[in-house]
Amino acid sequence: MAENIKNSTGGKKINANNNASNTVRSILFTFILICFGALLIANMNQSGVQKTEVPISEVIQRANDPDGDISKITITGNTLDITLKTKDQPTETSRKDPSGTLYDQGLINHCENLEGEDLTECQKKYPTIEYKEDADVWGIVLDVLLTVLPIIALVIFFSWMMRQATAANNQSMAFGKSRAKLYGPDKKKVTFKDVAGNEAAKQDLTEIVDFLKNPKKYEKLGAKIPRGVLLAGDPGTGKTLMARAVAGEADVPFFSISGSEFAEMFVGVGASRVRDLFSKAKKNAPSIIFIDEIDAVAHKRDARGGAGREDEQTLNQILVEMDGFDNDSGVIVMAATNRVDMLDKALLRPGRFDRHVNVTLPERKDRLEILKVHFKGKPVEENVDLEALAKKTAGSSGADLANIANEAAITAAREGHKAISNKDLTEAFERVAIGPERKSKVMNEKERKITAYHEAGHALVGHVLPDSDPVHKVTIIPRGSTGGVTWFLPPEDRSYKNIYELKDILARAMGGRVAEKLIFGTDAITTGASSDLKNVAELAKSMIVEEGMGSSTRNLVFPDEATGYYTITTGKPYSEKTAEIIDSEIKKLADEATKRAEMVLKANKAVLDKLAEELLAHETLEEAELEPILKSAKLPETVKLYK
Ligand code: ADP
Ligand code: ZN
Ligand code: MG
After folding, report:
1. What is the CATH number of the domain that holds 605?
2. What is the average pLDDT across 132-153?
3. Do the Cβ atoms of 35 and 149 come closer than 8 Å?
């Protein structure tokens, strides 16, 4: 029973298809290489000893001579392999005359039927004669394979190379080269117009565009052109889009590679890809190199777990390349990350990524602009209210908004509308924010009633408390994993919340569980409030530990195990005693919230009943419908005292 809206979906786009086929290709390639190598070695072994051919008459003569030099003759079909007394492998070969047996032709096995001493004596003088089975089938198969396979492998390899070369005009043919994508002037250009909002970031980047367009202007004045620009911001805020827009604005080639792509490379390949990427960019200067999700290779080298050696080599190569730039190289390296705190500090030093551009979550005005960008070209009904949607979507990223626009179009199409309506918008928004409506899930009457009182509890407490945001909408239609939802919307975007607002959030979150208990008694405490309770626990903890809002610990913060140092005795950055105080402060906040919710609901029981009843009847109540019901609710004096 979610209570408020958070931005949910991160904007991470993964080009799964492309990555997959790249991987398949790499695997195929290695496989072929290995086959090829193995076959070469096998072939070498086989033909390692060159045998000289000797006439059969000569062989028979030497074999029958007690002082002859042959120790063994192996006969396979028509072929004789001859081993000399001085050698331990056959060095000579001969062919039998196909007419008649060798015995007929005079090759006598002198040591036949001998045993023990006699046999050894005989073998010193005369060769051992051994008949092998007629050339075995497997030998033939192997022979054929050994000659044919390398050819097949070569053919596959070359056709693969050809395909590579033709398919991606700028993708390199050779192994170890970068597969950076090039968005040249021929590709669909992205410009700043496509990036709505984020004026500050665009302002910063306009300068970079100018460097790329008029490098001479800066060189003349002896200005150092920046080498590295780091775009930092939450997922889906448009960092990738922004980088492409810089290339589009400056009209220069854009070489982009994602940090995560390095991760799937073979050992030692990452660094050579970097080298290649930079050399290509330099050849095409002025140009932009864009390393997306750089945190994937550039996480702190000393961080727990440590970066893999491969990542480290890749990162080092990036640093080496950046250090090696001349002032007039005309290449600007851009990188994006949503984890600046995770980056290796070496990367942020002067001469490297020393320009930082923050890409932020959009404000209301910017959200409207982004929505306009994404609704452009989509048919919408005349009265469609994008402003209302922009207002509702506080905390959403650009990617979330793009997602809502797309969902709205899908919804409209599914419902057979000619244009997107306000209803489609609302549904798309709720689908993206919370998950699709579960029309099919039937709740039994008892569950519905409990849910109605639960949501009414949230709404009523939120409405009555003076520092809570106004109630926007209440529904008991289950969505995603929640049974019902109550929305509270801030009248405007705010960056900070004060302690009273936070306490009212805690109280209204407890309102659901408290209402259930009030109406159905202690026995009826349900599992429906688990996410409310979790939210309360988290918020209360952060108020005490991070914000210094504890009544006995006002203005003191308590670093968490990940960021703080440790005391030897407790393993925490504070003493056992302090830990107990923190726990009791958190409990105090939760208890106070429960108490306040209780007071509000008890004092307004009639309104609670009415609200639950209306919810059961209509399932969803909008602001306008809530207004007349909630109007008569009063703030009890006792609650005021808690301030
Ligand atoms: P990031 O790289 O920061 O994770 P992206 O650049 O990949 O985000 O953004 C994902 C998508 O979200 C973009 O392709 C675009 O459709 C949309 N988007 C994000 N920010 C904006 C914006 N400011 N204006 C227009 N569209 C945006
Ligand atoms: Zn709830
Ligand atoms: Mg991105």
Report:
1. 1.20.58.760
2. 74
3. yes
- Strand order across the 254-258 sheet: 181-182, 254-258, 287-292, 331-337, 228-232, 355-358
**Residues 200 and 274 grouped into a single domain:** yes
**C-beta of 402 in contact with ligand 1 (< 6 A):** yes
Note whether 371 and 318 are same-domain residues: no
The pLDDT of 626-630, averaged and rounded, is 95
Q: Which of 240, 241, 256 for mutating ligand 1's site (highest number of atoms within 8 Å of CB)?
A: 241
Determine the straight-line distance between the first and last CA of the chain, rounded to whole angstroms: 27
What are the tens digits of pLDDT across the range 223-244? Answer: 777 889 999 988 889 999 999 9
Q: What's the domain range around 332?
A: 181-358
471 close to 620: Cβ distance less than 8 angstroms? no
Q: Is residue 421 part of a domain?
A: yes
Place of tokens 């390639």: 29
**C-alpha count within 13 angstroms, C-beta hemisphere, residue 581:** 17
How far apart (Å, rounded) are the C-alpha atoms in residues 69 and 75?
Answer: 17
Same domain, 129 and 73: yes
Residue written as tokens 């198969």?
141
Task: For residues 643 and 639, give the distance between their C-alpha atoms in angstroms, rounded to a whole number.
Answer: 8
Distance CA 280, CA 349 (A): 24
Q: Which of 230, 235, 244, 134 is nearest to 194 (CA)?
A: 244
Nearest atom, ligand 1, residue 292 CA: 2
Radius of gyration of the chain (CA): 40
- The answer to the question of residue 9 being in a domain is no
Ligand number, closest to the Cα atom of 406:
1
- Residues 284, 400, single domain; the answer is no
Any ligand 1 atom below 6 A from CB of 318? no
Answer whether residue 384 is part of any domain. yes
At 20 the pLDDT is 47
Q: Is residue 485 domain-shared with residue 580, that is, in the same domain?
A: yes
Cite the DSSP H helix spans in 64-136.
116-125
Domain total of the chain: 5
Tell me the pLDDT tens digit for each residue of 481-534.
677 888 888 777 777 888 999 999 999 999 999 999 999 987 666 677 778 998
Active site residues: 455
